[in-house]
Specification:
single chain, mainly alpha, 3-stranded antiparallel sheet, two-stranded antiparallel ribbon, 5 strands, disordered N terminus, binds zinc ion, Casein kinase II subunit beta, protein kinase regulator activity, Casein_kinase_II_reg-sub
Length: about 270
């Protein structure tokens, strides 16, 4: 039994053919029921000129032959069908069923390994740098060094939007058991770590979040005390200065009175 046969219904036809193309090895077969659901494709209709024909092509039980692939009209439709399938794929792999399929593929090393020696051939996860088409090609994310790399072109050469930017984080959050046992910190000045996001928000690991929140809580009263102390010191300083000025003024007045008295005495 293949690794995903317990989940996938193997739709066959165009979908099976498309996912088996050498450059599409990272893509999984999306259920035909998912593709046919208007809730899943409704927002895509206006983005494509030939949406309905392209959708029919995706759901077709026939696989294209070499003559089809030489036909310009077919290729135009095929390009749209590929992108529509890719965007539906991005949504499908975020469903519980899609995540379960991708978990097994990840654990089986279907998406390759991290090229960094320190990561000891850590399995990687496909990631796009955007949820929108034609922004970047597919990359792979290493959960150990938390960096994104270009995959082998022979295995994966399609639009990054077919996976989207949030997918690795969603997979790791849904299945904490697939996290690597240890991660490595890359801290050279030349190294800029890849910033993982989930639906556009920066993601930090739980330890970091709880640590910083405890620090923040313990810092808050301290900061408030410090601020209060600064205010008190500042206020005391002002009061002291004011008293000092008044004392000086009184001294000066007394001195001038005494001098006046002396002058009067001299005149007498
Ligand atoms: Zn790595």
């Amino acid at each position: 039994m293949s690794e995903e046969s317990q989940y996938s219904e193997h739709p066959g036809g165009w979908i099976e053919w498309f996912c088996q193309l050498p450059q599409n090895q990272y893509l999984t077969e999306v259920d035909s029921e998912f593709i046919q659901d208007p809730n899943n494709y409704g927002h895509l209709i206006k983005q494509f000129n030939l949406f309905q024909q392209a959708l029919q092509m995706i759901l077709s039980s026939e696989q294209p032959d070499t003559l089809d692939l030489e036909n310009e009209k077919f290729l135009e439709l095929y390009t749209e069908a590929s992108d529509i399938y890719g965007l539906l794929h991005q949504a499908f792999i975020q469903t519980p069923k899609g995540l379960a399929i991708m978990r097994e593929r990840f654990l089986n090393g279907r998406f390759g390994h991290c090229p960094r020696v320190l990561c000891e051939k850590q399995n990687t996860i496909p990631i796009g740098l955007s949820e929108s088409l034609k922004t970047s090609r597919i990359k792979v994310y290493c959960p150990r060094c938390k960096e994104a790399y270009a995959p082998r072109k022979s295995q994966a050469d399609f639009d990054g939007a077919y996976f989207g930017r949030s997918f690795p984080m969603l997979l790791l959050l849904t299945y904490p058991d697939v996290h690597p046992k240890f991660t490595i910190q890359l801290g050279t000045e030349l190294f800029t770590p890849f910033q993982p996001t989930l639906y556009g928000f920066k993601v930090r690991d739980e330890k970091q979040v709880s640590q910083s929140s405890t620090q923040l809580q313990s810092q808050l009263p301290q900061q408030q005390q410090q601020q209060q102390q600064i205010i008190t010191e500042h206020t005391n300083g002002i009061v002291e200065k004011e008293n000092h000025h008044q004392q000086e003024k009184q001294n000066a007045e007394q001195e001038s009175k005494q001098q006046k008295k002396k002058k009067k005495n001299k005149k007498q």
